[in-house]
């Protein structure tokens, strides 16, 4: 009986140990839907290579920031970078992972990708509710000879707090003075018009379902759903298409050595896509769960080293090597309760 009891206790202790190991080999993040396609691919490849599970919830940047501040996830994700003051206040560290583009998409019968041209001023007027029909003179002037329907524009925007919305509204604030004065930029704004969709997924679904709709999504969603995108006039005056090269052209102006808080909308350059942005990871500098934090950092270290091909395939721009080096110098600042770095 005593031997049997000892054996049972030993087995129980072993199972508890295995359970602890399993928990440290599985971490959870939440936030921006903008990078969700690449995070999902990275997580799958990393799981196959290491057995470690990275569970990422695409809930929007606003929810991601709330969850990391509340310590209900191991890492948060946002396309709206926090200022140094905000990071210090919340005890957070942020670092960028990839760069991508926000793309206006339409559902207009007979109009294909790259056929319609818009400017930031006109796009802002559409979202202000000032331009309400597709054959409005402001749109017609940019698209001479195009057959534009005499139909109401079905405006679609995000319903949740969103880094994609931050990039979109930041761009509109730089190119439309009325938008800047009346609405401004942010992850959540007081939208003058439009139907709300949750996440890039929700906006995509709304635009696909509504005739004569316009919305904005991260480029990977536009490609995945074969949604017609518009050409946008950039700061140099050129109409450009969204693509990895035009995102890269916009990102070329960023000085990451000065600050990781970089907003890449309306950048100069002949080829720059005007609604470009990086996406960021948020983690607490002082960790209650240092083993979990170490797993998170090892995952992103792997992604920096091995994830470029996956990012390329989804038309994201991988971070330059020198930016990854800067980020790696930040990681030792993420420590346990005794101020020991969670990762060496």
Task: Please give a quick description of this structure.
The chain is of the alpha/beta class and 344 residues long.
Question: What features would you describe in this structure?
Answer:
This protein has 344 residues and is α/β, with parallel strands linked by helices. The chain contains 14 helices and 12 strands. It has helices at residues 2-24, 36-50, 61-69, 84-90, 120-128, 137-142, 163-175, 177-182, 199-209, 219-224, 244-251, 290-306, 308-313, 321-330; strands spanning 26-31, 53-58, 75-78, 92-107, 117-118, 154-158, 195-197, 213-218, 231-233, 239-240, 276-284, 317-318. Strands 1, 2, 3, 4, 6, 7, 8, 11 and 12 form a 9-stranded mixed beta sheet that branches. Helix 5 crosses helix 7 (163-175). The model is unreliable at 5-23 (pLDDT under 50).
What is the number of helical segments per DSSP (H or I, 4+ residues)?
A: 14
Straight-line N-to-C gap: 47 Å
**Could you estimate the helical fraction of the residues in percent?**
40-55%
> How large is the radius of gyration?
22 Å
Structural class: alpha/beta
Shape: elongated
Poorly predicted runs are 5-23
């Amino acid at each position: 009986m005593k031997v049997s009891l000892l054996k049972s206790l030993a087995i129980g202790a072993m199972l508890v140990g295995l359970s602890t190991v399993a928990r440290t080999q599985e971490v959870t993040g939440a936030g921006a839907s903008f990078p969700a396609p690449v995070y999902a691919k990275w997580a799958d490849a990393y799981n196959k290579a290491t057995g470690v599970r990275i569970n990422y919830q695409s809930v929007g940047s606003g929810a991601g920031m709330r969850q990391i501040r509340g310590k209900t996830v191991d890492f948060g994700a946002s396309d709206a970078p926090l200022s140094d003051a905000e990071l210090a206040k919340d005890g957070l560290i942020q670092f960028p992972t990839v760069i991508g583009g926000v793309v206006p998409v339409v559902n207009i019968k007979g109009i294909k990708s790259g056929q319609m041209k818009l400017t930031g001023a006109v796009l802002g007027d559409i979202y202000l509710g000032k331009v309400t029909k597709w054959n409005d003179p402001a749109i017609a002037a940019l698209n001479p000879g195009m057959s534009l329907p005499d139909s109401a524009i079905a405006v679609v925007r995000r319903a949740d707090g969103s880094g994609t919305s931050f990039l979109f509204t930041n761009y509109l604030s730089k190119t439309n003075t009325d938008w800047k004065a009346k609405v401004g930029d942010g992850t959540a704004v007081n939208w003058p018009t439009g139907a709300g969709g949750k996440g890039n997924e929700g906006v995509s679904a709304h635009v696909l379902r509504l005739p004569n709709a316009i919305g904005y999504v991260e480029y990977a969603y536009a490609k995945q759903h074969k949604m017609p995108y518009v050409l946008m006039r950039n700061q140099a005056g050129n109409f450009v298409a969204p693509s990895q090269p035009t995102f890269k052209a916009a990102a070329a102006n960023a000085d990451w050595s000065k600050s990781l808080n970089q907003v890449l909308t309306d950048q100069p350059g002949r080829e720059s896509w005007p609604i470009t942005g990086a996406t960021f990871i948020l983690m607490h500098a002082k960790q209650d769960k240092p083993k979990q934090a170490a797993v998170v950092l090892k995952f992103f270290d792997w992604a920096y080293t091995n994830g470029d091909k996956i990012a390329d395939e989804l038309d994201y721009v991988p971070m330059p090597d020198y930016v990854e080096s800067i980020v790696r110098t930040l990681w030792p600042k993420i420590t346990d309760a005794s101020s020991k770095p969670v990762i060496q």
